[in-house]
Description:
By secondary structure, this protein is α/β, with parallel strands linked by helices. It folds into 2 domains: 3-299, Mur-like, catalytic domain (UDP-N-acetylmuramoyl-L-alanine:D-glutamate ligase, 3-Layer(aba) Sandwich); 306-435, Mur ligase, C-terminal domain (Protein-Tyrosine Phosphatase, Chain A, Alpha-Beta Complex). The chain has 17 helices and 17 strands. The protein is globular.
Amino acid sequence: MTYQEAIDFLYNATPQFQQIGAAAYKPGLDTVRRLSELYGEPHRNYRVIHVGGTNGKGSTAHTLAAVLQSAGYRVGLFTSPHLVDFRERIRIDGKMIPKEEVVRWLDDYIDRVPGLQPSFFELTTIMAMDWFARSNVDVAVIEVGLGGRLDSTNIVSPVLSVITNISFDHMAQLGNSLTSIASEKAGIIKPATPVVIGESAGNPDVRDVFVNKCHEVGAPYVLADDVPLFSSVRQSVDDECLVYSDTPFGSRLSSCLTGNCQPHNALTIMHAILKLRDCGFIIPDMAVAEGFSNVTKLTGLMGRWMRISEAPLTIADTGHNEGGWSYLAPRLKEISSRSPLRMVIGFVNDKDVDHILALMPQEAEYYFTRASVPRALSSADLAEKAKEFGLKGRAFESVSEALQSAWSDSADGDVVFVGGSTFVVADALEVTLNHS
């Protein structure tokens, strides 16, 4: 195969949640365990940090990888979804899996594994784990794809589990209550394996799900909300970083991730680093500082309150559910109070958008759009729905059209925001790459 043929095989021969949604969801671990056995259970060749949760798991996984890289470890990183290039999902020390390795692995898979019919995510999970093993990584940071208990990544035996938070998302697969979602996420908690539980103080029932699971399997745990590890956090003068004061790793720790959700993620990450030290990892304070301040450069993380253009200032963020928008909305409302704000917004068609639209600033000008995936919600339907929440604007058939129009309409001092769906951000990044 050529690389393009390999990618076409992945996208077309295996059900892909990113493209078609719930129809591609394949709960259960039988197929992925069989695949893993055929490849010699590669995840047993290195230590694993398993990161789950509803929001923040991507930022958390990438930052932990950046810190461990800075400490001198050879680090595998498996995350999802990708934005522009499939290979973003699978990295070692920040470098994407080579194209020729993707081709080689799939050629081998087709010859080796007839008849299993794995999903896209099952296949890519084992591709990543096998490549990490053959590349002799010291540790792999593995992000849960969807849920936890029945997620393909849950075949691992980690040295540390991390659960960032719980919010409403993927209810068709995980349940309609926060406690049912939490029960699925808690499925990554393993016997006698330490667990860091991030945001949980706001919901005692969710907290109880995690604590009870830890007691049931004898897993030592820390509730990050209960143990503050910095005295304050402030935005830098140039708005380029968040500065945490009086941390266990120094009196001043700067992070290049500046979204309103990031202080919660940072607290979870700091607790995870302390637990990793307890597990025998050698992580100097300087490595923590380097990882926090350079996570995007070290790991290739994109789409977290990310500046994709400076003139006009254009921010993209992949927050796509009610929990994510509970952090995005206050910052956007603050921006709209001092600058004209233009919102390029789209969603997938299986998302309950009412709660999200209710959070969006009414002062903004909206450019409703449709991402280039089959799951995308019609921009016209979105525009009609948005009227119910006092949001006014025009509908565009593509992200490129919407973004170009927002830029054309902008004057000095205007701010453009791109989001609502990961796929809208992905299309916008393609536009900016071509634009540059």
